[in-house]
Structure formats: structure tokens, C-alpha cells
Amino acid sequence: xxxxxxFFLSLIVLASCKKHNDGDNVFKGPDQQFQGGKAWTWLxxxxxxxxxxxxxxxxxAALSTLDPGTDESHxxxxxxxxxxxxxxxxxxxxxxxxxxxxxxxxxxxxxxxxHFDFHFYIQSEADRLAIPPYAQDSxxxxxxPAPGYLPGTYVPVPxxxxxxxTHWVDATTPELHGQPFTQTFLYGSYDSKVTFYEPxxxxxxxxxNASFERAIPQPTKYKTSGYxxxxxxxxxxxGVLNVxxxxxxxxxxx
Length: 254
Fold this sequence. Notes:
mainly beta; 7-stranded antiparallel sheet; 4 helices; about 15% helix
């Protein structure tokens, strides 16, 4: 009888542990080595299994050991590709790309400050990696999404980046009008499709702000039906920096 009681007690304990682990509906992607620490992704869903938050997380060990960079041409980058938990397939996103730019990048006087690029990709990683250098073949960089698939205030940045695509910037963003660059939100495209969402944030801004939230400018059309984010949030918690896409809303394909 005692064995039976212990057996059922064990089942209850295991069930309660599972409920505790999954009860908050947070699904973590695998850790990746980043700088002197780690980075990973995580997804939070609601009780109905719909996406609430999708994030890139960086631990304090990584933030404390960032490469200062020695390339004065502003082209030094330290980046990694991050897998998403399989549950993240309920969103349009397939993987993430985290980059640390110790000298920033062009244009000079605008984005040449130490900053992070947090890419959340809609296209597959294989398709992303197949994007050639712009000088080698610019044709698909210049195939822009049709009107409506990007916010109306967004304009393409000249040229394109291999294994990324064309970057689009909000023409109303403060750093393009004489204000210092702190944080902004970009979109990406390739071969006429929107391919990534990208918060771009300076290290100085992250150091100064333990919490920050902003709206994501929204398009009016979507290629694929699904849940798309409307808000970006920065949140530091227990020594971990989280850059979060949230406020997911279901959109019908146009």
C-alpha cells in the first residue's frame, strides 16, 4: 500500500513540476555562445497557445565581455544565428540573428555608434544564407515589396548586405533629423518579400535603460496570415537583457 501511495505522490510531484515549468508558457531556444557568455531566444504564449512575446536574451557574462573592436573602418561585427523553440512556429519567425557592432556602421555620423542589431527573420535561414553580396548580384535586393507591405514612412537604405538583404528605415526616425541615435526599428526585404524585423539599439541606451517600450510601425498588408508583433520592449531582469517583440495581433494575408 505504501508503494502505491508513494507512486501516486511521485506522479503528483512530477505533474506539479511540469505545470510549474510549462505553466507560464515560456519556451526557450538553445543557448549559443556569444562573446564571453551566452544568448538565446524565448517565446511566451497565452493560455490558448497564441504568441504573447518573442525575445532575444543576452546574459551578463556576454554583456560584460563585448569585443571592443579594432577595425576602424566601422565594419567589425560579432554575430550569431539563434534558433527558436519549435513552438515559435506559431509566429511568422524562423530564426534570429544577433550582431554586436563595436564601431557601428555607415552612414557616418548616424549609425556609427557601438550598437546591437536584433534581427528576427521571417525567411528561412537557408534562404538568408543564400543572399549574395550586393556587388555580385543586386537584382533581388532591388525587387522591393509592393506598396502596403511595409509601413508608409519607410524607405530603403541604398545597397544591400549579403546574408541579410535590403534594410528599410523609418524616414521620420529622430536620428535622420539631427538627433543622436539611441534606438530605432528597421524592416528588411529581399526578392519582393519582407524578410525581417529589426530593433537596432545602442549599447549606451541599453546601459541607461533597464526598461523601455515602443510601438512598431505597422504595414497595411501581409504576405502570409499569422500573428505579427505591434510593440518592441527592452527589459533587464536577473542580469539578463531581453529584447522583446510583443503585442501580437492576427493578420490576414492580403
